[in-house]
């Protein structure tokens, strides 16, 4: 069998199999052409579900007489000129196959008049003949395309069309999606000469009105608006955390409606991580990025795209959507966060006894649970993962399982606190003082450390067993880093996070910007919001908005000493920081630093062997 080039009409019909699936496909291609032509008013007339007639009218730029025949030719388009244009597509249509493919399986009439042309002209093509007839006609500025008797010459294809009602429902849903893609375009849809949809042109500020008209007033009222990112990669839109039975799920990339698997997966993951399993959430999401970073030429009907940095885009969408799905009470930066535990009267009295000492023997973090359950230490991994799941940095800490299991079976911190009577505190204070005097003679000796929860640790040195806290090691380490490098090392977020602030809070942060820079923050200030680019490493897993809320509370105290700021930074450090892989590096760094080792031992409580045995026995139970 010899190789031959396909005739033009056969090639067009093959292409029509990819482009023209059903009447809704024709509407999509023609309306997108109207939008690319600059139209701000489009009328769509449908008869018998699109089987008999599809008519699209617009007030766009139109097509000059000499290009009417060429417009119905295959691979003819005004939207691409070179390979560079193909790599940076900003229009909706670009292949130049739609009109030729549609005209090969229907009776197509194209009437158009550019504003600079005195008269309008009409081109007609019918099925296999493909011979384009051009004649003058009466027509206002713009273009009208009539598609009659779709698939009249391909009965096998026509047999696969559904009922008129079904086909029109596809067209109706398509028009909804198009209406949400361009608020500034007025669209009217009629079926059998009855107006079914009528969307008036809206400004971007009136976008909620268009969303309410398409997705329903309930969606527009209950949905949360989200805006994140900056130029080059930006996401905005509405999400409905309570679910919408999947009736309102619309995504757009650079104005192009999408059903992309990567985008849908990222949105669903954000909902599941924030709210657990949820049935079909509702959303209207717009993603804008550099056209060079996305390839829209991967699907015949352009329903899917390929991102050059797919993982980056996926994580950005997850983090951005989380902001809107976050619990309502945490959305305001002025809302005071409540602790997730409640102390009884005995615990409160005991805490006051510890904090009333002139020099604290044991540093007790503000959120420490005085009644740890047997599974407290084994759940550290889960707590760490939950804390990191709401992070906008995308990072996750890996828990040292061996260390956690060993700690679980050996130590019960609550028993130790109960064993610290006032007499024991006084004795330990004097011993700690004498230990500080002899520090220089024992620094070189071997030191063993065993971590507890909430930053507590046992220090075993020669014949002494001490209980201390990482606070007394971290602060000298941070101070040394600041003196050496002028600032702590900050860790960059995967993508900058936007946090909306009022003028008062923004001024408070700006006033303390130099202190925050020393701690490792990198914040850019704008008129009504800030962009957080870096965070200190030890608070990297905390939600950015929540951390800024805590920072604002600290700014109101007006700390003027770096020691106060370092104390504050330590208080923000989550307990997972001390049971993750960072613990190993921190332990080595402490043991290699004489100043930090001295500080941690000077603030330690010395235990005798009997008390240590009691703790081990009670912990084993």
Automatic annotation (TrEMBL):
Q: Name one GO cellular component term.
A: mismatch repair complex
UniProt KW keywords: DNA damage, DNA repair, Endonuclease, Hydrolase, Nuclease
- The organism is Pseudoalteromonas phenolica
General function of this protein: This protein is involved in the repair of mismatches in DNA. It is required for dam-dependent methyl-directed DNA mismatch repair. May act as a 'molecular matchmaker', a protein that promotes the formation of a stable complex between two or more DNA-binding proteins in an ATP-dependent manner without itself being part of a final effector complex.
Claim: Oxidoreductase is one of the keywords in the record: no
A GO biological process this protein is involved in? mismatch repair
What family is reported?
A: Belongs to the DNA mismatch repair MutL/HexB family.
Region of interest called Disordered, as start-end residue ranges on this chain: 373-397
Q: Which domain of life is it from?
A: Bacteria
Q: Which InterPro entries match?
A: DNA_mismatch_repair_CS, DNA_mismatch_repair_MutL, DNA_mismatch_S5_2-like, HATPase_C_sf, MutL/Mlh/PMS, MutL/Mlh/Pms-like, MutL_C, MutL_C_regsub
Record's protein name: DNA mismatch repair protein MutL
What is a single molecular function from GO for this protein?
ATP hydrolysis activity
Residues forming the DNA mismatch repair protein S5 domain are: 211-326
């Amino acid at each position: 069998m010899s190789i031959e080039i396909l005739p033009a009409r056969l090639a067009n019909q093959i292409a029509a199999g990819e482009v023209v699936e059903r009447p809704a496909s024709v509407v999509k291609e023609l309306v997108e052409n109207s939008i690319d032509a600059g139209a701000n008013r489009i009328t769509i007339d449908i008869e018998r579900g699109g089987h008999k007639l599809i008519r699209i009218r617009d007030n766009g730029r139109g097509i000059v007489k000499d290009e009417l025949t060429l417009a119905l030719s295959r691979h003819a388009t005004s939207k691409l000129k070179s390979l560079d244009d193909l790599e940076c597509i900003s229009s909706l249509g670009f292949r130049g196959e739609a009109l030729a493919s549609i005209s090969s399986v229907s009776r197509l009439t194209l009437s158009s008049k550019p504003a600079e042309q005195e008269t309008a002209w009409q081109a007609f093509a019918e099925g296999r003949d493909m011979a384009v007839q051009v004649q003058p006609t009466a027509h206002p500025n713009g273009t009208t395309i009539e598609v009659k008797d779709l698939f009249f010459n391909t009965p096998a294809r026509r047999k696969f069309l559904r009922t008129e009602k079904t086909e029109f429902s596809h067209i109706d849903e398509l028009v909804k999606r198009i209406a949400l893609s361009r608020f500034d375009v007025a669209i009217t849809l009629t079926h059998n000469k009855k107006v079914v949809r009528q969307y008036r042109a809206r400004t971007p500020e009136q976008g909620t009105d268009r969303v309410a008209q398409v997705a329903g007033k309930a969606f527009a009222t209950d949905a949360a608006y989200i805006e994140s990112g900056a130029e080059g990669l930006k996401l905005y839109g509405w999400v409905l955390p309570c679910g919408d039975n999947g009736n309102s799920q619309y995504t757009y990339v650079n104005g192009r409606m999408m059903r992309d698997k990567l985008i849908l997966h990222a949105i669903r993951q954000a909902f599941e991580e924030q709210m657990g399993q949820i049935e079909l959430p509702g959303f209207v999401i717009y993603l804008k990025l550099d056209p060079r970073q996305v390839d829209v030429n991967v699907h015949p009907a352009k329903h899917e795209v390929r991102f050059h940095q797919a993982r980056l885009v996926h994580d950005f969408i997850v983090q951005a959507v989380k902001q809107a799905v976050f619990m309502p009470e945490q959305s305001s930066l002025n809302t005071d966060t409540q602790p997730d535990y409640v102390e009884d009267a005995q615990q409160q009295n005991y805490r006051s006894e510890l904090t009333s000492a002139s020099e604290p023997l044991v540093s007790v973090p503000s959120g420490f649970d005085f009644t740890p359950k047997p599974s407290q230490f084994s759940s550290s991994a889960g707590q760490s993962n939950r804390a990191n799941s709401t992070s906008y940095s995308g990072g996750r800490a890996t828990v040292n399982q061996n260390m956690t299991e060993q700690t679980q079976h050996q130590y019960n911190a609550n028993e130790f606190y109960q064993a610290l009577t006032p007499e024991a505190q006084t004795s330990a204070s004097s011993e700690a003082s004498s230990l500080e005097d002899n520090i220089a003679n024992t620094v070189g000796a071997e030191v063993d450390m065993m971590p507890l929860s909430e930053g507590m640790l046992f220090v075993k040195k020669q014949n002494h067993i001490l209980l201390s806290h990482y606070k007394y090691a971290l602060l000298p380490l941070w101070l040394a880093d600041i003196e050496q490098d002028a600032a702590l090392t900050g860790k960059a977020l995967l993508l900058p996070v936007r946090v909306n602030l009022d003028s008062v809070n923004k001024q408070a942060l700006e006033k303390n910007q130099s202190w925050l820079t020393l701690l490792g923050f990198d914040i850019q200030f704008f008129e009504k919001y800030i962009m957080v680019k870096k965070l200190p490493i030890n608070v990297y897993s905390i939600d950015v908005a929540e951390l800024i809320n805590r920072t604002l509370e600290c700014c109101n105290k007006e700390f003027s000493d770096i020691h106060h700021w370092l104390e504050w930074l330590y208080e923000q450090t989550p307990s997972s920081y001390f049971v993750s892989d960072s613990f190993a590096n921190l332990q080595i760094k402490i043991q290699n630093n004489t100043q930090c080792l001295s500080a941690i031992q000077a603030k330690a409580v010395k235990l005798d062997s009997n008390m240590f045995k009691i703790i081990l026995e009670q912990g084993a139970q």
